Fold these 4 entries.
Entry 1:
Amino acid sequence: MPDRDVVAWTAMVTGYAARSQNTRAWGVFCEMLRKEIVPNAFTFSSVLKVCKGMNYGQQMHAAAMKHGFESDTPVMNSILDMYCRFVCLPLANQCFTEMRQKDLITWNTLISGYEKFDSTQSLLVFSRMESEGFTPNCFTFTSVTAACANLAVISCGQQVHGGIIRRGLNSNLALVNSLIDMYAKCGSITEAHKIFNEMPVRDLVSWTSMMIGYGAHGYGEEAVALFEEMVKADVKPDQIVFMAVLSSCSHAGLVDQGLNYFNSVMDHYKIKPNQEIYGCVVDLLGRAGRVEEAYELIQSMPFKPDESVWGALLSACKTHSLPGLAKLAALRVLDLQPNVVSTYVMLSNIYAAEGEWRESARMRKLMKEIVSKKVSGKSCIEVKNQVYSFVVGDTVGTHMERAYQTLGLLFQHMKEIDDEDEVDCLIHAIENGV
């Protein structure tokens, strides 16, 4: 084209962005600017999706403001999505607050952004959205249901489920799949099973969600039966399905059946096992006490094992008291992921048991250095319709004194019925913020 206008340039940027060819899309946009073609709203909306980093995104935000798009809701929604994508939630919230006009996409973008990293805030934004008169759609409810699942707050999840039914959205496949996942993660496997059975149409995600739910709650045989039912229904499994069924076999002690499934991954289904699948098989063998076989499997892997595979072997060595192999596995984990505090604790205990006190002390020192740099983990629990949050190493708060008293009683009870050395190691680990 000898004469290209902004529409032609934008079409190229949008086309590359739609095909996830981000580098090319960005290159076309930069060339467009060099030729002094002024971008329009569609250009900004497209290029914001392909920003290579936060710095580029902020530059696009500034450029959009410079060209007078602060009142253009689709452009502002794209800026908001960019901040959420780069997990810069304070700037996302600031952008949201400063927006002159908000639509349902605006609210959905912020709710989805918070869902992955601050589920409580996601639910608060949802509540505020409804109070301001916006009607949630399937996308809204999918994010909110996921937030309830992350927090394991079943009462809130049930209210959301009711809202889905009232609005006639309970036939949406993706939304029903999210409900199965939510109920399973909240501990209501019966309700998850009921929803699954009532589905007129199921996709691979439906089967996988139910299988993962069964496996997580110790219903290994049910998960295996569901896998067989899925295969009979001519639904082709993928890597995630095999991870779910292998994990279920591991927890249920179905070792031979799990190994048969592993062999069928390549032979029958022509799926190449990934790190996670190998990790599941290592865990399967390790839990059954076949630790040497697990180690041999690692040595025969067609690619370099990652920390999840070595971590599975390390757990097996700890369970079956194999300090030599445990040391090897722990060192491999630290080579690949040096910030895992629990690995330092385990190594320290192994060195102490072998009388290598200097190495044990060195591991403890390294562990404390990492703990001081880490952001404290937070857990949530729902009790009588109220959600309580706990931060690792927390010593203040309304219920902390009672919590530590109860923890002390539990440790005392463990000492009475279990191995004292193991309990002492656990207490020491918790005191160090693990």
Entry 2:
Amino acid sequence: NAVVNQDGELDVSGGGHGIDITGDSATVDNKGGMTVTDPDSIGIQIDGDKAVVNNDGDSAISNGGTGTQINGDEAT
């Protein structure tokens, strides 16, 4: 049951991952901005069921990047 509260700027590039969680019932509250650029770069990645992601900040996704990727069931 991971919980991540992101309040600042999240900048991801070069194929990196900003927040990477493996496990069920994870929660991410992103209140800051998120900028993701370049192929294979992922701002938030969760591998698990019943994930909850709240993105309240501005997101800028470009050049083949992925903002949020959830691999699992029953995500909200």
Entry 3:
Amino acid sequence: MTKGNTLTAAFSVIFASNYIMPDFLKNSLFFLMFFLTASSFAQEGKELDITSDISQIDEVKYPGALVMYKNTNQVYIQHEGIEMWCDLAFHYKNENFVRAIGNVCMKQGDTISMRSNYGEYNGNTQFAWASGGVNLKTPTATLDTDTLYFDRIKQQAYYRTGGTLRDTASVINSKIGRYFLDQDKYSFIQDVVVTNPEYVIESDQLDFYSESGVAYLYGPSTITSETSTVYCERGYYDTRNDNGYFVKNSRIDYDNRTVYGDSLYFDRPTNFASATNNIKVLDTANNSVIKGHYAEVYKDKDSVFITQKAVAITVQDNDSIYIHGDRLVVTGIPEKRIVRGYYNVRLFKSDLSGKSDSIHINQQTGLTQMIGKPILWSGLSQMTGDSIHLKSNTKTEQLDSLKVFENAFMAQQDTIPLFDQKEKTGFNQVKGDVLYGTFLDNALHQIDIVKNAESINYMRGDDGVLQGIDKSKSASITAILEENELVEITKWKQVDGEVYPLSKFPIESREFPGLNWRGDERLLTKEDIFKGEAPFTLTKIEGIPLPEIDEDFFDNSIPDEKLDIPEASKLNPSDFKNREEDAPSIGVPVNDKATIQEGTDSTKTKKPQLKQLPKPKVKDSTTTNNEG
């Protein structure tokens, strides 16, 4: 519409004896006052309907406008379901346009009410613009900004000069915001900060559903509190119930523990978190990490529970100890950490490995207890007993000693087959009530068998030729190992013993009762801790789809000359253009009129229905799907 239309009319003038005329009226070509009387300018169709106490025309100062202002009652404007109030209005009848000044209030049914210092409304396009102390109220939240656009046809409000939203739980600040009335949804872009008494959320892009208090985070985002920091690049957070679900490079940082996973669930009131698929729990205080595919973290109890290919890894002097079990539980404050492993426990170190039904590790004392059918391999040596304890130096974190309780048995397979049993080799064996071992440079160096010690030793010369088999009983026996080879045996208080040639040593006497050689189970690599287990399939994760991006608030395809901007409006054609820097960086455009910043996390092939996403769930599946 062309600006500059002229409004002319004839009015009756009524003077009130006690009325003091404003200066601007004294200089008017025409003036008109209706004291406590309504003047209606309703016309057919979509014409504005305006009522005021006082109206006047000044074609010199305000060409084409009927100036209407408050005396007792504010100027009142109606149009197609919207109501406006203000102290001063300029009505441009030919353009069906009004400018409102002073204590402006705009109300649309019971859905929204907006207050500002200044406002404009175009009856032809049903487009409103407010500036100066803008306050928009909905049944669930309040928005404050400097300028606000409101498209009644789209039922959307928009700002790009910074705004603050307040609801019952949080305050949200952003540079750009868009409100969708039909969904009670806000889309915030750039410098988004959600402030709550308990935490602060920072995000590149955030969708917020005011009625439910649910927020969806897109792009690098953090949720920071006194006790934890959550990071994700796609997430869901319930600001009312203080819990959330996070995917894509997600992690939770505690004081001395960081939890990673393909998906994370976090509940702030209970300080509980769970993680699914490719889990890593990093313990910075004790230089250790636990991995698996499902974990639960109880912050208040300093407790972590992990299953599904669970493995605990502790770095010790440039070497690492790997402990695997069906279930691993870590409890206690950093200086008093306890690690427990249950069922089918396996332990691996470069020169040491073992198995047991369960394991208990006290990181404060450095004591590791292998419980239930324990077996330990050191090089070619195998040790068994009712239980096995390993002791580490808590300062150097190197292995210091070991102890085998009750029915201690150490065996080492001889390296050369026997000539009378071509397919079999003999076993060097030491047994007794208790076995003590000491480590030198993190390798097993000396073994002492005490009480009821017995031994069978295949004695060979430097050329490897068998010289005889020594079988004896002693009060105790000391064995020295070098590079995991048994090189020396010393018997203390020997009570019986004899060296036999192979031909004189019966086959049935060559093994002590209780020998159960399990060399084929020995763990040779860290991957062997999972040897023999059924293949594992990751849980299918329900991801959070990219947001569906509605068409742009403004239509850039409309030429400037086609824009319906009244001559008296403060707005220019440039104000009705979408700027590339204001477009969202993440999402799925619904059509060609929706803009996404180039080179960002978006796609035009998928179109998830994101009117309001349901609370994510995790379900089991026989297939793997780890897409965020």
Entry 4:
Amino acid sequence: GDAIGLGVAAEYLMALGMDSVREHERDLVTYALDLLPREVPGIEVYGPLDPDLRGGVIPFNLPGIHPHDVAQVLDRSGIAVRAGHHCTMPLHERLDLAATARASFNVYSTREDVDALATGLKEVQRVFNG
């Protein structure tokens, strides 16, 4: 089962072409890096701002709101982000961060998903900050 699924997924990606996959990912990250700071007051985005220097993930924090709380409230709206150290504890320690939330984009993600994330993050702020 799992091996067959992995094979089908690999065939799908090869049919799309990895350059096409990377370009789609880059477009979404570029869009998100522009939209989120404009739409979500105070959001702290970590990592290079140049999408060519990053993959399809955007780690972030909302000041005063724990990343696990961010993830839980977003989950209520069907938006999945991860919260924690993301296997990068030394980096989190170096940046003096207890944890971060992380949005990940892939071939199935759309600009509408980025819009929904921004809307969801504003709702998180409303819930915790009034």
